[in-house]
Amino acid sequence: MAAAAKARPVIRVAPYKLRKIGVVSTLLPGLAPKVIEKTLKITTARIAPAGATIISEKRVPHDQPALARAIDELLKAGAELVIVFGASAIADRRDVIPAAIEAVGGDIEHFGMPVDPGNLMLIGRACGQPVLGAPGCARSPKENGFDWILMRLLAGLPVTRADVTGMGVGGLLMEIVTRPQPREERTPQAGRRIAALVLAAGRSTRMGAVNKMLAEIGGKPLVRIAAEQAVASHAQPIIVVTGHEREKVEAALKGLPVRFVHNADYAEGLGMSLKAGIAAVPEEADAVVVCLGDMPQVDAALINRLIAAFDPERGALVVVPSIDGRRGNPVVWSRRFFHDLMAIQGDVGARHLIGNYAEAVVEVPLAGEAALTDVDTPESLLAVKAEIERA
Known about the structure:
This protein is of the alpha/beta class. The protein folds into two domains: 14-166, Molybdenum Cofactor Biosythetic Enzyme, Chain A; 194-390, Spore Coat Polysaccharide Biosynthesis Protein SpsA, Chain A. Helices cover 31% and strands 21% of the residues. It has 13 helices and 16 strands. The protein has helices spanning 2-7, 33-47, 64-76, 96-103, 145-154, 161-166, 222-232, 246-252, 270-280, 300-309, 338-342, 351-356, 378-390, and strands at residues 20-27, 53-61, 81-85, 107-111, 122-126, 129-134, 194-200, 216-217, 220-221, 238-242, 259-262, 287-292, 318-323, 326-327, 331-334, 361-365. Strands 7, 10, 11, 12, 13, 14, 15 and 16 form an eight-stranded mixed β-sheet that branches. A six-stranded mixed β-sheet has the order 2-1-3-6-5-4, sandwiched between helices. Strand 8 (216-217) and strand 9 (220-221) form a beta hairpin. Helix 3 packs across helix 4. Mean pLDDT is 89; it is low at 181-190.
């Protein structure tokens, strides 16, 4: 054993060599520009420890000729590695990305890897330089199979078929919500059940002495307007999280088929209300739509549009309304994110989770300002009142 160790080093350190990275993003309708921007930001951070930088990035339609031209231009510009982020996942070797690599005289060295997440990785070579067809998980900052290949290539190491297949030993990485381990898969149900949370626990400090949940528009408290619309939607059951002036809020909802959950720690912020509400969602629910009790223009039709867009089989695990590129509320969350939602602290909400899991987010474009308009001040209450009365 000692003789073998002397003959062949047990460990070898390969320094990073590749420094110039080219990136191509293909485009299809529905792929928001902010997803691409987020991908570039994550990629920049991912390659920074290797001393590499993105020397050029291109955005082209998701078709073979356009992508082939972009790859060729990046290679001619001096890129030592080209990464292609497809708007659609690579299905097989005849798909757009592998076809584009071959169109510029390149070869497909390997497609697929026994690693999850990252199994749709494509490794090719063109003009003597590596070209990666990135799997969808490469848009996430979390470690995945993309990192295993990328770091080897940045060190100038060849990645052979044997290397890739060998990654199947221990190839299921840390569990992530967008790709749960098989043991976490739920028994398929006939249809999907979406619960609703109406958050109504806050102290309304910006409203002065008035609890905004009890402020009225058209003779109804804001919280009742929000709860009635949730009840009229396809969501079931409806859970209302109370806190400040609990008894008054419950009285304002008298007669509605809702469940109440009290957040005794409401003064600590929105995070505690989310924790209390998510804990009360029944086990059989596949997802929850989180509604805010101070958004009186969010109606049942809007909630139903978001629910209809929830499609785990197609990767739509988080559904957000979008108005002219701005994201609003309510938001539909797959059960896979419940643990993350319950871990939120303070009064920051879940916006950072949407950013962290961009690959699981789908936007529903809307007209109007309903999904962006909440009531926080006496002035905003008057403005919303006036708008509703004009409608």
